Amino acid sequence: MDKYQQIISVESDVTIVVRAHGNLDVHQWDRPELGIITDINVQKIRHENKLLRLLFVEDCDLSIPKNRELIIERVSENARLRDLENPLTINTVGGRLALQNIVSAAIGRVSESCLLENISGKLKIGRVGDKLTGKNLGGGLSVDRVSGNVKLQGVGGSLDVRCDGSVEVSLMDSNKEKISIRSADDIFLHLPADSNAALQIRSGGENILFETSSLKKKINESRGEIRLGSGEQKITLDAGDRVRVTGDILDEKEILRLFTDLDILWKKLKEASEIRQAAREKEVHWEIKMVEGVAKIAHEAMDGVEEIADSVTEDAIREAEMHVKEAMRQVQEQIRSLGYDTWIDEDQEPVDEVETEGMEKGSDVTEEEKLIVMRLLQQQKISVEEADRLLEVLSDTSGR
Q1: 125: which residues sit within 8 A by CB, 6+ positions away?
Q2: Disulfide-capable partner of 139 in 92, 121, 303, 363 (CB 3.0 to 4.6 Å)?
Q3: How confident is the model at residue 145 (pLDDT cuts 50, 70, 90)?
Q4: Lowest-confidence pick of 104-108, 151-155, 209-213, 237-241
Q5: Residue 268: CB partners within 8 Å, gap ≥ 6?
């Protein structure tokens, strides 16, 4: 099926800012322009001083010219970013995130798994809701919290990671930087040959095992201090259960399989996108009453927000949020009255962000909800900005 394609000229000092409600695939190319490929033309492009703001309601393939700063404000589903030479900022990914051949990046939150390959510079991550896996991380990695397991092959810089699952890490031969690993489960560290390291270890399971070329030792205590060579490198291991330190090479079969799975995943995502596109090209048999009702409520909600948009007080912000959420509850009631599944669990109270730490899930916006929003867009009954707000309210409310 035909895709919607667009080429946009971008000045060299412009920062590209992206929000996407579908899947986002970004790579660098040699052309000076920005390339956009989407299923249909449901997007908003706005120049704002030195910013180029892009809003996509559907899946998008984005080609970025060299030497352009890129900020991803939000991706509701999955994101893959490849071959980017400039520093990268990602605030929120609602699904899975894959970074390949990146210079450096600062990432806020990934709701599901995170996959890393060939990161030459520093990488800072806030929270990962599932597994963190990577290979060839040359510039150092800092992660505040990982809910699943961590497996990293070839860490070349400093490492600071906190994990609710198990951690397995191998260090590059040249790594002399500080290593700090905290795990609620097991820690398995692969050291290079002839390491010069001072290790401070805590094992909640009172089980510490060394099996390197220079030392073979088992400690059935909760704490241990080990010095290898000159002790130049500082390594801290804090495990809720066992600690294993070995000179063996990490088996990277599982990591390689994940990258193969990544290619398969993106192929399936693109196939699913084509199926959705075909479905939208056919008449979607929603009752006219519901379509018109949703459009009316959406407009009323957005009008209410615009009326107080000039105010910056916290009370005004809360009033705007309550107005939109009340509108969405009305949409829910209307859909329920027509026999469809509800959009929002109206009994679910907002959860404090601290309480949800490490428990984030991806966007729970259903295909039925998205079809309704897309239909309204195609009929020009709501704008792209209104669709963005509706999808964000749905994601924030039902996704927690």
Answers
A1: 107, 110, 114, 132, 141, 142, 143, 144
A2: 121
A3: very high
A4: 209-213
A5: none
Cα 197 to the chain's mean position, in Å? 34
Q: What SS3 state is found at 126?
A: strand
Distance between CA atoms of residues 168 and 251, nearest Å: 10
Taking CA atoms, 37 is separated from 6, 43, 61, 296, in Å, by: 7, 11, 5, 31
Residue at 60: amino acid letter: C
Query: Which residues, 6 or more positions from 119, have their beta carbon under 8 angstroms from its beta carbon?
Result: 99, 102, 103, 104, 105, 134, 136, 137, 138, 139, 141
**How many angstroms separate the Cα of 56 from the Cα of each of 73, 92, 245, 295, 377?**
12, 15, 47, 19, 12
SS3 235: strand
Distance CA 69, CA 206 (A): 48
Whether residue 391 contacts residue 370, with contact meaning beta carbons closer than 8 Å, is answered with yes
Amino acid at 26: V
Q: Compute the distance between CA of residue 42 and CA of residue 47 in angstroms, rounded to an integer.
A: 17
Most confident of the ranges 187-196, 282-291, 309-318, 384-393: 187-196
| Residue 123: count of CB within 10 angstroms of its CB | 24
366, 349 in Cβ contact below 8 A? no
| pLDDT tens by residue, 253-274 | 777 777 777 777 777 777 776 6
Task: Label residues 335-354 b or e (16+ Cβ within 10 Å = b).
Answer: beeeebeebbeeeeeeeeee
Using alpha carbons, list the distances in angstroms from residue 371 to 40, 291, 294, 296, 396. Answer: 13, 11, 12, 17, 18
pLDDT at 340 over 50: no
**Size of the chain, expressed as the number of residues it contains:** 400
Mean pLDDT of 33-46: 82
Question: What are the residues whose beta carbons fall under 8 Å from the beta carbon of 166, sequence distance 6 or more?
Answer: 149, 150, 183, 185, 186, 187, 188
Q: What ranges do the domains of the chain cover?
A: 1-112, 114-250, 283-398
What SS3 state is found at 147?
coil
